[in-house]
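Researcher: Good morning. I'm working through a list of sequences from a screen, and I'd like to move beyond sequence-only analysis. For each chain I'm collecting a predicted structure so we can compare shapes side by side. This is the next one on the list. No need for commentary yet; just the structure.
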Amino acid sequence: MVGSLLQVKIFYLGCGWFFAAFFIQWALWKIRLPQRQAKTLLILFGLIWLTSLALVWMVSSDPDHWAALQNPAEYLHYSFLYIALTLAYLNTYPGLEADSPSLVIVMTIHQGGEEGVAVEKFYETLTDDLLVKPRIRDLLVDKMATLDDGKYRLTRKGRLLAVLFGAYRSLLKAPKGG
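Model: Good morning. Structure tokens for this chain:
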């Protein structure tokens, strides 16, 4: 097959299956919002990717079929595109799931319009109930931390994440802070 036609086919397959997964996720979230959304997304998009590979493989017995992929490199290219789109979506999903503190700050200032927001009103609006407590609830729900005897403690999973982020920041020589 001509290279550019193959690239278009892989592009349409990758984007098509990604958007199919996205709309399935949207429909499922309308029925019931899962408690652990990121994990559910990863499982859902992974299952749809595996299903898509099986379906494309089945139609590939007919080389003239519009979705037929002919060799492992084509499957690999398709998989890279689908997985890249999925990981990009998973990376931005927390911004949809819950407002980040930075987003809340920007939106609060934006709502002030051209006149801006008075400093007193700004600090009255941005409380720990809005900025900090939802993040702590997320840590508890995702089993990254526990609340025992009035103390928050990181779980093994939370400690692993802390070590990974610490190493990453150290590697980049990033300053402390947000």
